[in-house]
Structure formats: structure tokens, C-alpha cells
């Protein structure tokens, strides 16, 4: 496996709608494995393909060992409900954090690395991470949804809660 370079803002690929994946092969599996290694190396909880300079509808999320690694290919949001506001950051915006309002629940249809379709339901932080990564695939950056930016000192207070 390999750790890939993270694309940082500003870069056009981050604001481009990604292409649908149509080929499910060893190259895709290798990209997913490399994206996972990259996310872990950078202490992320999610990573979308455009963040590693690939304009395809591919994203991964892993918030903890209990939920495991979620690989989403061609994800579509089927349902959202509720509301939550919390601090978000992004590997493509190092050192930048802000409060973002998102749904508290999300239901998503996606494909796995073999092309099999599945449905996942998530709440709270898991839902937030999924929606953040799907936004990347639409060319939507979290900075467009920030209601208030958080500085480093204030961020430490959030982490202690």
C-alpha cells in the first residue's frame, strides 16, 4: 500500500463534481487500499477520491473500530433527517476548523469495491462524516457550510468535551 499526497485547497479538482465509477477491478481495490492508508497516516476519519487527485465517486469513512471502514462507491443519499451542529475540519484545509450544521441521520445507497449495492444508515458523528465525504464527490467544500470558524485555542476546548 501507499500513502498518497493530499490535495489541498485551492485546487480545481476539489470543486468539481466527480465521475461515476463503472469499472470494479484491481485498480479500484488498490486505490481504496491506498486511500485508507492515506487517511490513517493523516489522522483523518474520512477521505474522498478528489482529495487524492482522482475525480471519481469514491469515498471512505472510519470513525472508530466499532463502525469499521465504510467504502462508498457512487453513493447516493436516500434520506436525511434531524439536525446537528458540530466542529468539522478537512484534510484538504489543514489547520482550518468550523461549525457546520448537518442532518443527524442519513441513509445512503452505495456500492462496495466489487460493485455490490448496499444501504447504510448512520447517526450523529458517523452521519456527519459520511455527508462530509459525499459533499466532496459533488464538489462541495465544508467551508461553504461553515457558520462560524473555530481557532486552535477554542478547538482544544471542544476536544475536551
TrEMBL record:
<dbReference type="Pfam" id="PF01327">
    <property type="entry name" value="Pep_deformylase"/>
</dbReference>
<dbReference type="GO" id="GO:0006412">
    <property type="term" value="P:translation"/>
</dbReference>
<comment type="function">
    <text>Removes the formyl group from the N-terminal Met of newly synthesized proteins. Requires at least a dipeptide for an efficient rate of reaction. N-terminal L-methionine is a prerequisite for activity but the enzyme has broad specificity at other positions.</text>
</comment>
<keyword id="KW-0378">Hydrolase</keyword>
<dbReference type="InterPro" id="IPR036821">
    <property type="entry name" value="Peptide_deformylase_sf"/>
</dbReference>
<dbReference type="GO" id="GO:0042586">
    <property type="term" value="F:peptide deformylase activity"/>
</dbReference>
<protein>
    <recommendedName>
        <fullName>Peptide deformylase</fullName>
        <ecNumber>3.5.1.88</ecNumber>
    </recommendedName>
</protein>
<feature type="binding site">
    <location>
        <position position="90"/>
    </location>
    <ligand>
        <name>Fe cation</name>
    </ligand>
</feature>
<keyword id="KW-0479">Metal-binding</keyword>
<feature type="binding site">
    <location>
        <position position="136"/>
    </location>
    <ligand>
        <name>Fe cation</name>
    </ligand>
</feature>
<feature type="binding site">
    <location>
        <position position="132"/>
    </location>
    <ligand>
        <name>Fe cation</name>
    </ligand>
</feature>
<keyword id="KW-0408">Iron</keyword>
<keyword id="KW-0648">Protein biosynthesis</keyword>
<feature type="active site">
    <location>
        <position position="133"/>
    </location>
</feature>
<dbReference type="InterPro" id="IPR023635">
    <property type="entry name" value="Peptide_deformylase"/>
</dbReference>
<comment type="similarity">
    <text>Belongs to the polypeptide deformylase family.</text>
</comment>
<dbReference type="GO" id="GO:0046872">
    <property type="term" value="F:metal ion binding"/>
</dbReference>
Amino acid at each position: 500500500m501507499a500513502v498518497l499526497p493530499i490535495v489541498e485547497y485551492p485546487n480545481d479538482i476539489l470543486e468539481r463534481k466527480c465521475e461515476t465509477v463503472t469499472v470494479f477491478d484491481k485498480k479500484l481495490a488498490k486505490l481504496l487500499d491506498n486511500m485508507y492508508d492515506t487517511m490513517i497516516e493523516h489522522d483523518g476519519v474520512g477521505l474522498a477520491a478528489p482529495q487524492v487527485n482522482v475525480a471519481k465517486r469514491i469515498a471512505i469513512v472510519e470513525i472508530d473500530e466499532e463502525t469499521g471502514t465504510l467504502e462508498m462507491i457512487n453513493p447516493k443519499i436516500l434520506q436525511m433527517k434531524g439536525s446537528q451542529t458540530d466542529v468539522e475540519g478537512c484534510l484538504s484545509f489543514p489547520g482550518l476548523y468550523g461549525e457546520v450544521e448537518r442532518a443527524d441521520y442519513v441513509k445512503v445507497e452505495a456500492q462496495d469495491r466489487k460493485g455490490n449495492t448496499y444501504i447504510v444508515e448512520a447517526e450523529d458523528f458517523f452521519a456527519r462524516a459520511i455527508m462530509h465525504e459525499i459533499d466532496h464527490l459533488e464538489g462541495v467544500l465544508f467551508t461553504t457550510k461553515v457558520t462560524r470558524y473555530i481557532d486552535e485555542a477554542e478547538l482544544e476546548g471542544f476536544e475536551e468535551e
